[in-house]
Amino acid sequence: MQRVFRLVASILGVVVITFLVVSLIRVNATTAGFAYLLYILVVASTWGFLPALTSSIAATLTFNFYFFPPIGTLTIADPQNWIALFTFLATSLIASQLSTAAQRRTLDAVARQDDLERLYAFGRAILLIDSAEPFAKQLAMRLAETFDLNAVALYDAQSDRIYLAGPADVAGIDNQLREAARQGTSFADPNQKHIITAVRLGSKPIASLALEGRRMNDSVVQSIANLVAIGLERAKTEELEHEVEVARRSDRLRTTLIDAMAHEFKTPLTSIRAATSALLANPEEEASKVRMLKIADEEASHLEELIENALDLAQLDSSHIDVELEVSNLADTVNEVLAAMNSKTADRKVEFVCDKEVHPIPFDRRLLKLAIKQILDNAVKYSVSGTPIDIRAFPVNGTLALEITDHGKGIPADEQRRIFDRFYRSPSVESRIPGSGLGLSIAYRILQAHGGDLNVRSRPGETTFRLSLPIEIKGEKR
């Protein structure tokens, strides 16, 4: 329909020009010929060669009819006019062809520029893909969006999965996609604007791609396939790096826990051995026996607690934490931790204040003791010997809060949001104060498992950690 309209319009244009140069303006043959020629060039540059050819023939006939004697007929009396007429026709046709060729080159250049811009945009989109969804699925979606395709199907040979994108559905091509990926072949259906091509990494096919919705030349299709191959390989590289990092962190965690537990175990074992050695050396002294047995018993209990903590730490390395809830007294739990850490806090004043409104609530005593111990150990480690440590328990906004305050140098504002990250240690103290960067992370995860929270506020000379526990927790496990 559009082609017919253009052909009719090109003839009507000749009729209008003829009316102007014959009836209104009345120009000579030379001027009329230039008017016709100019119109033919405009038609050729706008609509292409076929409408220009039609207007050239119509202009030649009207030119002969109105300007070559005998006027009003399609015959030519003077042979020279035949030469002029054919020269006009040849000139108009050649000019039309040249104009059409120039237009085609311009359109091709514009199309190539558009393809290059789309390829660049697609390359950038690959770099910005996140890990929220499967990489191949997002790759297909970005491809459909960037090239305005009706449908995209991407088959990843490694996972043996097909990822679809675009408003339309590509049906019945699963076998062709798998065959293209296995054999490295391509298939094109120009009538349906349907292309299937292999995606290669070097000479090895690793995937296949089906595109539907617009015509693209082979070089563009291959460029898309190359970018898809690069994207898939990047995804595999990142996945491998993530697996390596997870393995490295897991190994580091195990090593750190083993080192920490070995150090912790030495203290009660040393005390137990000292007590038993004293008993063996002085078997006659009854008073000494009682005192040494008491020390050995206390340190054996300490050693048992350390073993339980080690098991808890191993559990905290997993993605799920089982919390065994029992209604307990927070004040008693804090006092038990202070008693167990008496040797570490002996050089400073530790003041514990518990509000009268604090009542027993459900929590896991063993895990919460471990969390409080980590916070207290952090307070001792990062404050000067002799400075006090203040502990306060009080209810607030439907939670039971426990605040532990030390009077060290404080935590810089830009580091406060990172101190609960696993293995994070401040660069300013990493080389001076021993530690693994796990303590605060462990305490944070324990509070989160209870449905509570752990946060910090700090300024030079004072740092306060607040452990918040919900007063009521539904269920016995969380």
Global shape: rod-shaped
Quickly count the domains. Answer: 4
- Proportion in helices: 55-70%
Biggest β-sheet description? 5 strands, antiparallel
CATH superfamily of the largest domain: Histidine kinase-like ATPase, C-terminal domain
List keywords for this structure.
single chain, 478 residues, alpha+beta, Beta-Lactamase, Helix Hairpins, 4 domains, 5-stranded antiparallel sheet, 5-stranded mixed sheet, 12 helices, 12 strands, 56% helix, 15% strand, disordered C terminus
Per-chain topology:
Elements: H1 2-24, H2 29-47, H3 49-67, H4 79-127, H5 135-146, E1 151-156, E2 161-165, H6 174-183, E3 187-189, E4 194-201, E5 204-212, H7 218-281, H8 286-316, E6 326-328, H9 330-340, E7 350-354, E8 361-363, H10 365-381, E9 389-396, E10 399-406, H11 413-416, H12 439-449, E11 453-459, E12 462-470
Parallel strand pairs: 7-9
Antiparallel strand pairs: 1-2, 1-5, 3-4, 4-5, 6-8, 9-10, 10-12, 11-12
Helix pairs in contact: 1-2, 1-3, 2-3, 2-4, 3-4, 4-5, 4-7, 5-7, 7-8, 9-10, 10-12
